Automatic annotation (TrEMBL):
InterPro entries: PCMT, SAM-dependent_MTases_sf
Protein name, entry field: Protein-L-isoaspartate O-methyltransferase
Compartments it resides in: Cytoplasm
Source organism (scientific name): Streptomyces halobius
Domain of life: Bacteria
Keywords for this protein: Cytoplasm, Methyltransferase, S-adenosyl-L-methionine, Transferase
Record family assignment: Belongs to the methyltransferase superfamily. L-isoaspartyl/D-aspartyl protein methyltransferase family.
Alphabetical list of Pfam families matching this protein: PCMT (PF01135)
The protein's Enzyme Commission number: 2.1.1.77
Amino acid sequence: MPNTTPTDQALDQAIHAVPAEQFHGVDGRAVRPCTPAAVTHRHLRMLDVHPGANVMDIGIGSGLSAALLAQLAGPEGRVTAVEIDPALARRAEALYAEYGHQVAVVVGDGLLGYPQNGPYDRILVGTTPPAIPDAWLQQLKPGGTLLSGVRIADLPGAYAIARITVDDKHQPHQVEIHHGGYTPMVAPAPADTASRAVDTQQPDCSLTPLSDQDPSTIERLLAALRDASHTEPTPAQHADYFHLKNWLIATEPAGLLEATIDHGTGIGLGSLSPNGTAHVAIATDEHLIADHIESSALEVLHALIHQWREAGSPRTHELPARLTRDTDVWQARVSRS
């Protein structure tokens, strides 16, 4: 019989008391898209909410997470849910009243948090902000924990989940980055730090390099990838792909890029040879795709995948993680060492 901790038992009881159907709905009242209940449950296990906790939930979504938090915090605790969309807030508030969940709903900008009900033992952010606002860390109690969607690179699909614990000065004390992600937050778009090429004939096809590149170079790389003559099965199993992807982001090899073509979306690298020929290769969850079977980019990508495997195919949460301050926000990043 598996060992369970008091936190595991409490979450199991909360899940039983708050079935997802109350919020995801079977009657047309569901919010789409919504985070799958299993993902919400996994993240609440990571957040480790105890009875009596004061918790803030940012991004109300279907309303499920705040209801579960209320069960975990219990009658002596308090849960504040902040949502920028008044319609979503009203829907969740009505469901809380209908099913007897003690959640205070606030309509407002989640980037600001809600200091009026703080400081908080835990903060759950069920969305991905452009960067982590320092305001969230300041609203945590010393030793408090934030769980949030984050961007770990200036690439379109570089999403992950950060678990951040603060010290007595509200500075990041412990940072873990996990595989996963939430939809982007409704927030002003940050300055576009990455160049991007889009195929005018196929707008769904695009290529974004991590570092600045000349627009003509990016377009040539995209054209070479779009017309790729070589495809092979990816060496990484489907479940491993996103860990490989995040390891490549952490490694940051020269020419790192993300691209979407007919075969799917993947991460890889590309460059121009001295004679101007474009060499590019990407890994998706199913294929390795390259401009040519003897592409220099494919050779480098094969070598990188071999390095990842030789290192034990590290999981995302095994990569060293950090937050870097940028004025009033924090950027989440992973590295190999």
